Amino acid sequence: MYGCVGLFAACALAGCGKEEEENLQYLNLSDIACTFTGEDNLPFKVTVYAYADWTAESDASWAKVGDKTAESFTITVDDNPDSAERSARISLTAGALSREITVFQMASGKGCVRFRRLDDFQNLGAMSPNGRYVGGYTAEIPSGNTWYYTPVIIDTETGERQALGGPYKEAEICWFHGTFAVSDNGEVFYQDSNTSGTMIFDLTGGHYAPEAPGGVSRVPSVQATSLGGKYWVGYVRNDSDRLYHPIKWTDGVPEWLPMPEKDFRGYDFTTGVMARGVSADGEVIYGTTWERDDSGMVYWKDGEVKYVGHDVHTITPCQLYDANWELFDWNLANGVTCTAERTNISPSGKWIAGAYKTEEERNHQIVETGDYPAFYNTETEKTTIFEDYNGYYAATVTDDGLGVIQSRYGTEGYVVDVEAKCAVGSVSQWVYDTYGIVIPDDCGIIAFSPDLTHIWGVGQRGYALGGVIPYVWYIAPPLGE
After folding, report:
1. How many Cα atoms within 13 Å fall on the side-chain side of residue 466?
2. Would you call the peptide bond into 167 cis, given omega within 30 degrees of 0 as the criterion?
3. DSSP secondary-structure letter at 266?
4. What does the alpha-carbon distance between residue 181 and residue 326 come to, in Å, rounded to a whole number?
5. What share of the chain in percent tops pLDDT 70?
6. Which among 145, 166, 266, 359 has most CB atoms closer than 10 A?
7. Are 374 and 383 in contact (CB under 8 A)?
8. What region holds the BACON domain (predicted)?
């Protein structure tokens, strides 16, 4: 069963201050569509934000409105006896305002993939490479002003949700600040603000920090794992030169990865390099430089380190004004970049997704002129740039060259054929064509499992009188398959 996010508001304003507040009229919904399987469905809850009493009515006898409160109601559906998908509409009215929710139901006897939205995960989450596990954490303040965190893992094969210990008081064991990765063995790698490194929780509820290379006192950060969990990649700040260095772990044992000779602009490193993602077999790794805001992409293959998109990477000397309006020498850099994304590599390591950025010097100042989705082929060492999508970036890609590009300034995203250099369709349209279910238009795909049976993504949920908050979601096969 699935819920689609939407937010609408209508306002009639008169005067200002208290009078304006009293005349504000709105009818906002947490969801504007939902999809049910053909049979054995649970109720779906919709939250309503309304300035006055409201009503909800279905135009089909099989889709029912129930459990109505002042702030919500549920949708329940009868089993579908037909061999075709069907739909209904639920109309809501509050005063002069009205909204609709579209209800889709698949045919009975037909397995339907599951779309699950995880609104309660804090700072998003992560999916294991094979799609078996989804991990994250929840946060609550049961009393006083102290936060408590519970690490959580979900088995997508069974739908079982399991706490990996806790709830833990803030800064106890781990100060949860994000979820980096989940292994196929059920290990969840959390960002720990106590150490600026990683704390790993497993299915037994045990927890431990990753091993650091010899001579390093800090706790490393694990960013991603290979298929099967044999290899991890990440980074740590080295005590000797105080630079961040990339690391690869094999069965938990760390080794340094080589650094490029120069940074993205051709200068000596002052901050370092971080490994971010890894192929299914651990043979290809990518990462980013962390010098200023350059975020140039690098990759490791066959024992060598190169810049992603080195075929389009250019460095051009120029002069810029400093804060005192005095000229100084600087290097402009065009090339492929990314930030902290950890799923930009295809399973075999053939493709790496990123953004091709260009800049110019104008009147002795830097002007960014391009920000395009880009896909680099590690076999041919050639970059494919989607010049028609300025303001977009490439988020992930499959071995067959099925890529996802996402807008930086909105929720719009597309699935593209990299080799043909064309869009296949919007993310929601591609999911409907491929899996037969409707998902929100604002959903973006973060990662695919190698066989495309599982998808991990992010969306935006509307609330109250405006604004959005992000949530994560996944698609998985029907239970029992």
Report:
1. 5
2. yes
3. S
4. 46
5. 92
6. 166
7. yes
8. 53-105
Instruction: Write down the pLDDT at residue 228.
Output: 97
Q: What's the CA gap between 217 and 481, in Å, rounded? A: 46
Do 308 and 336 form a contact (C-beta atoms < 8 A)? Answer: yes
Residue 346 has pLDDT above 90, yes or no: yes
Q: Is 31 contained in some domain? A: yes
Q: What is the DSSP string of 237-256?
A: E-TTT--EEEEEEETTEEEE
Q: Terminal CA-to-CA distance of the chain, rounded, Å?
A: 16
Residues near 143 by Cβ (< 8 Å), separated by ≥ 6?
Answer: none
Token pair of 464, please? 């109250």
Are the C-beta atoms of residues 258 and 305 closer than 8 Å to each other?
yes
Q: Tell me if 79 is assigned to some domain.
A: yes
Q: Residue 460: enclosing H or E segment and its boundaries?
A: strand 455-462
How far apart, in whole angstroms, are the C-alpha atoms of residue 349 and residue 279?
5
Tokens 């044992």 sit on residue = 253
DSSP for 386-435, written as a single string: -TT-TTEEEEEE-TT-EEEEEESSSS-EEEEETTTTEEEEEHHHHHHHHH
Kindly state the tokens that stand for 450: 């190698």
CA–CA separation, 423 vs 432, rounded Å? 15
Q: How many helices (H) and strands (E) does the chain have?
A: 2, 39
β-strand 168-169 against 148-155: which pairing, if any?
antiparallel
Cα–Cα distance, 49 to 30 (Å, whole number): 8
How is the beta sheet containing 253-256 ordered, strand by strand?
A: 221-225, 231-237, 244-250, 253-256
The CATH number given to whatever domain includes residue 43 is: 2.60.40.10
H helix or E strand, kind and range, residue 50: strand 44-50
Judge whether residue 24 has pLDDT over 80.
no
Domain extent, residue 58, equals 2-105
Per-residue pLDDT, 38:
81
List the structure tokens of 319.
């002069």
- The rounded distance, in Å, linking the Cα atoms of 210 and 200 is 7
Nearest to 378 by CA among 250, 256, 278: 278
23 domain-assigned: yes
Instruction: Give the residue among 61, 64, 27, 63 at the shortest CA–CA distance from 47.
Output: 27
Q: Specify if 12 maps to a domain.
A: yes
- Is the CB of residue 383 less than 8 Å from the CB of residue 356? yes
Confidence band, pLDDT 50/70/90 cuts, at residue 398: very high
Residue type at position 64: K
pLDDT in tens, 195-204: 999 999 999 9
How does DSSP classify residue 30? Answer: S
